[in-house]
Amino acid sequence: MALFDVPGWSVKADPVADASPRKRKRSPVEPGNDINLQKLVSKLSHKDKDVTANHNKKDRKLAKDKEKSKKRMSREDIKNSISLPKALKPVRDRSPSTASSSNQQPPAKKAKTKHVSEPSTDLQPRKSSESTSGLTEMQKSMKQSLSGARFRMINERLYKTTSDEAVSMMEQDSSVFEDYHEGFRHQVQSWPTNPVEMYIEALSSSPAGTIIADLGCGDAALARALLPKGLAVLSYDLVSDNSFVIAADICHRIPLPGSEPTGPEKSNGEAQIVDVAVCALSLMGTNWPICIREAWRILRHGGQLKIAEVVSRFVNVKHFIALITAMGFSLTSKDTSNTHFSMFEFKKVPRCGKTEDEWEGLLQKGNLLKPCEYKRR
């Protein structure tokens, strides 16, 4: 019996087909197909070359990138090595000075001290004779600006305080007087005329032996010019910084002989020796009327009082002249034609004695002259 012989089933007894796989029969290479094959081979070979070239380019680019990164790293390493602090040497390798300094104790803190209030620092001593050699033009200009500012500040204080306070200020700071006159000389250079030079010219023709009192003389330019001409010039200022100047407060007491009348009768006083009194830009302190009173006391009968002041200082010229007249003078000439200065000449005349109350009323009129303020140049 067959293996799968089942009743009711039947299988045809056709022969079984050949189960072996069929193989594709390749056509033989014909002579025309050799060219196509060679083209294919050449294409493949070119592709291989291109791939190889691309690989080589990539390799070279990677190599360049690696070199750049190495250089960058080396630069950063150098930079870091420069910025990093150097390691300390061992103690045995250090120099003796370095080793000893490392063992020293840190300096002790300074004990706190209480500062006593001092005068304003803007008037502290300053050496005005400092050399400007070695300074640039800008530095010289800045130095000159500072000197000018200091001059204007001192000038303002001299005009707005009494002569007593000015003396005290100069005693505390010996450079104030020098710095003021140094700045004043710079201001004079910008003036169209100088009253002192005008007085020198006017007084040069005075008779020999004429005694002139220069009240508020500064650097005594009047005496330097007139002494060689045979005239006697007595120069007074708050501080004496040369042999021509006598230190005196002209708004307090001038050290010269002279007296005032005490009774109701008119008098010229006694013992006067001065022929001419000059006040060239010197009525500075708020108590300047005392200087006019002192000028009358030291002048001979008929003696001259010459006053020159900055135009901007006068509150009222008529009231100014009236005050000088009330103290024992008569106006002989007035020159207000100058744009910068007003100049007056008075002559001493006899007068009666005055009570203390009368003098008090006259001496309180110092506000007829305003402070002189120089503009910044």
From TrEMBL:
UniProt keyword rRNA processing present: yes
GO cellular component: nucleolus
The EC number(s) this enzyme carries: 2.1.1.-
Domain of life where this protein originates: Eukaryota
Example GO biological process: ribosomal large subunit biogenesis
Biased composition (Basic and acidic residues): 62-79
InterPro entries assigned: RRP8 (IPR007823), RRP8_N (IPR042036), SAM-dependent_MTases_sf (IPR029063)
GO-annotated molecular function: rRNA (adenine) methyltransferase activity
Compartment(s): Nucleus, Nucleolus
Keywords: Methyltransferase, Nucleus, rRNA processing, S-adenosyl-L-methionine, Transferase
Coiled coil: none
Residue ranges, annotated region (Disordered): 1-147
Keyword Methyltransferase: yes
Biased composition (Polar residues): 96-106, 130-147
Protein function: S-adenosyl-L-methionine-dependent methyltransferase that specifically methylates the N(1) position of adenine in helix 25.1 in 25S rRNA. Required both for ribosomal 40S and 60S subunits biogenesis. Required for efficient pre-rRNA cleavage at site A2.
Family as reported in the entry's similarity comment: Belongs to the methyltransferase superfamily. RRP8 family.
Alphabetical list of PANTHER family matching this protein: RIBOSOMAL RNA-PROCESSING PROTEIN 8
Name used for this protein in its record: Ribosomal RNA-processing protein 8
Organism in which the protein naturally occurs: Cylindrobasidium torrendii FP15055 ss-10
Lineage, opening ranks: Eukaryota, Fungi, Dikarya, Basidiomycota, Agaricomycotina
